[in-house]
Specification:
- The chain is built from four helices and three strands, in the order βααββαα.
- Strands 1-2-3 form a three-stranded mixed β-sheet.
- The longest helix has 9 residues.
- The protein has a domain of about 40 residues: YefM-like fold (3-Layer(aba) Sandwich), CATH 3.40.1620.10.
């Protein structure tokens, strides 16, 4: 754990964040007038495989999925190229 003053944190924020990202520090405490007021910690990394493709195989997309796009666009106030 590393402690920095509020002034130092403002001045060197990108350097402090980089030390968290690369793992040099596991957390940084920011103090004001010698008292701790905030703690910076890196966000945990979510593996890509956990978030992409979570619904794979759970439903099927119909062939005519885009059939009503023009009607839906009109409902939202979009004008087709023919109207312009």
């Amino acid at each position: 754990m590393h402690t920095v003053s509020l002034f130092e944190a403002k001045t060197h924020l990108s350097r402090i964040v980089e030390s968290l990202v690369v793992g040099k520090e596991d957390q940084v405490v920011i103090s004001r007038r010698g008292r701790p007021v905030a703690r910076l910690t890196p966000l945990s990394k979510t593996p890509v495989s956990k978030r992409i493709g979570v619904a794979r195989g759970r439903f099927s997309v119909p062939d005519d999925i885009d059939r009503d796009n023009a009607t839906i666009a009109e409902l939202f106030g979009a004008r087709s190229e023919e109207q312009e």
